[in-house]
Amino acid sequence: MTRRILLACLLSVAAVGCDEKLSSVTGPTPQLEPTFTSIQRDIFGARDLAGRQACTDCHSDVGRNPSGGLVLLGGRAHAALVNQVSTGKPGAIRVIPGDPDNSYIIRKLEGAPDIVGVRMPRGNGPFLTDGQILVIRRWIQLGAPNN
Amino acid sequence: MRYIFRCTILTVIVSLGASVPSQGQTVPNDDPDLALQLAQPDFTLVALPTTLRVPRHKGAFRVTHRFTRELGNGDFGDLASDLFGLDNGAQIGLEYRFGLFSGTQIGFHRTSDRTTEFFAQHEVKAQSESFPFTISAYASIDGTNNFRDSYSPALGAVVSRTIAEHVAFYLEPIWVNNSNTLPSALVDNNDAMLLGLGTRLRVRPTVYIVIEGTPRIAGDKPNVTQIGVGLEKRAGGHTFQLNFSNGFGTTLGQVARGGTGRSDWYMGFNISRKFF
Fold it and tell me: How far does the CA of residue A33 sit from the closest CA of chain B (Å)?
């Protein structure tokens, strides 16, 4: 009986489902999730704990011309990104649902060698962390829904 | 997770404490598990477990070594000048297992990337004239960063079939949870279903050839299937194994993450010692 109880204890320990916390990879935006609402709130519309500037500091048409002709204000960003052609690089699509590798926003955020202009956010950083970009990649991979 | 860790440690400690024979209680010397199993002399193949039982209240130690130099990197002269990888770094594992009861063993395995694995194995059914296989239930949990970060529990079965004193075959369906170290919100699969396949062939009275492969038949499948082959020499209570594999994994969580590449092969060795 003792043997079965001990074995059951060990099996129970092993049977516990485990997972990593999303905040363990999202760094300076601990609430970031792979949804458009979260990306809009934590990436586009706000500075983060590392001091990265908000995308909407430049990508806004409030009192200025939006950089790259791209407006990332709430309520307008999704339509401006998904399946939309970049004005900076002819032929490039800003967000291709299901294809993060070829989505131009990812290439701009990662500073890929084929981008036109500079890596985003503009300046010398801080740039988005690998974990933050991973979350945006996942949202695109899931079809870039307006969720 | 710290609670689970403490429970595991407590369970192991209580088990060990309870397993020490009390005064007047003796372990029978005629325990059949003390006898050498010629077709299955060791508790592991290259990385996968076998169905060999640890005798009650006895133990066994194992050290695993996987040199991190790719054997295909450079020409033969380069390889020889590095002594086939011995001059380079290695992932080292230390393991101890203990026979808690007749047919039940527990143990731990710690690798030098700071992964710590605790495991338990229990023989459910032994091969006999009326039953062609030995079946063991197997459970483990490994955790990275000295069991503080990413935990990968595993549950499965080890099925073996020995033929005379010359060969043993293994089939090991094992489910590994959280084999992907990223949060599940960022991945398609967080679990992997392994189907370990292996054999140990006794080619000389004390020399064996060991082969194993661990395809992931469902779930998360990063990298490539880890494969290992070994040449083994048994000497008394020791087993020395020179092996070649395409990955460094020696815990089930590591094996579930696959080998490094189809053409990346590394030399390594296992040394085990039975304390009985």
Answer: 8
